[in-house]
Specification:
Elements: H1 4-15, E1 20-21, E2 27-30, E3 38-42, E4 48-54, E5 57-66, E6 73-75, E7 83-87, E8 96-99, E9 107-116, H2 125-139, H3 156-163, H4 174-183
Length: 192
Amino acid sequence: MKKIIPTLLIACSLLGASEFMYSDKVKSVYADATGGTQIGRLLPTNGVKILAKEGGRVKIEVEGYQNPAVPNVIYFSDSQRVFTVAFAKTAKIDVKVVKKGKDGKWDRVKTVVYTEDGDFVDDVKPMLARAAETYKNSCGVCHGLHETTHYKANQWPNLLKSMLSRTAIEKKDEWLVIEYLQKHSSDVDIRN
């Protein structure tokens, strides 16, 4: 009986391995479990599947969209520049096309990379709520707060970056707030 309980716990944890996990931090990504060279960055609030743990890193599957003209970025949606993971132009990554894009839409793709273990949770809603609160408390001080749908996804990064020096948004939260604004913009709305 004592041997069955640990086996059941391991089996249950492996069943949850296919669930999406999220981080509220920008995370470095690597080509393998031990290499020291960073090949890109995973942006906050993007769901990944954790496939395995090796040492201090986790092997993750990242799925999204790729503009054929920009092979070093995987995007959240099929026509806006909402980054999921951005790779160095010199990085050698194996990206597999899941579904070819049609009528101007980008290809649905996936890839496997490694990142540091930790800072992952299974629910994105609390981090999006924190990003919304940070936006509300920082950006409504000098002027009326714009609805997230006031701008398109591709407009939000430059607009927010131009105002960051006048806000209390911490450096570590910049991309969290940008991802929140983009994913709730007029042309990419994750609420639907």
